Amino acid sequence: LSYNEITNVTSNRSLQVFTRNAEFYNQANPITPASSSWQQQSVYGNKRIAIVQIDGSSYYIDKNGKDLRSFLFSFDEDGYASAAVSLLADDITNDVADVASITGTEASVSNYIYVVNGDGTIAALNVMRAEGINGWTRIITDGTAKRVETINEVMSFIVQRATGKYFIQKMDHPYTMDPSTNALCPLSTAK
Known about the structure:
Blueprint: E1 6-11, E2 15-19, E3 23-26, E4 38-42, E5 52-54, E6 57-61, E7 68-74, E8 79-84, E9 96-102, E10 111-117, E11 122-128, E12 133-139, E13 144-151, E14 154-160, E15 166-170
Antiparallel strand pairs: 1-2, 2-3, 3-4, 5-6, 6-7, 7-8, 9-10, 10-11, 11-12, 13-14, 14-15
C-alpha cells in the first residue's frame, strides 16, 4: 500500500492537488463522490510551500526545493505540464523557504514572484506569460530574508539583521534601495 502525502490544494481552472510525489487535477464538474476523476499529470512533487497563481498558471516549488514550476494546461499534451521556470537561472534558487506573488499594479504591468531561499537570499521573477517574458533577478538586502508575503498589494519581507533583530521591509517600487527614503534638496542658485 502506498500513498501520496497532499502538500497543497488549489483551485485554478480546475481543482488541483499537489502531493509530495506528483501533481493531479480533477476534471469533474461538479465534483461528487460518483463523478470524481483524479488524473496524475506530472511527477515532480511539491514542497509544502504556498502555490501562487498568475495568468491561469499555478506556480509551485518542486519537492527538492530547487525549481519553480508552472503547472499549466497544454493543448499539445491534452493535459497539464509542469515546466521548470527556473531552469535558466538555476543558480538563483536554492532550498526555497517561501514564495509570494503580486500581479500588475499601477506602478507596473508586470507580475512578480518573489522567492526567499533557505540561505536568506531573495530572487524575483518577472512573469508576463502571454508575452513570453520570464526574467529572474537577485535582490540584495542587508540581512537574511526569512519570509515574504503580499499585504494590500505590497510585497513585504521579514528580514533578520546582523544584530539579530527582525524587521519588516516593504518593496516600494519608486524606491528600490534598502532601506531608502525620499528627500528633496533645494537647488543651489550660487554662481
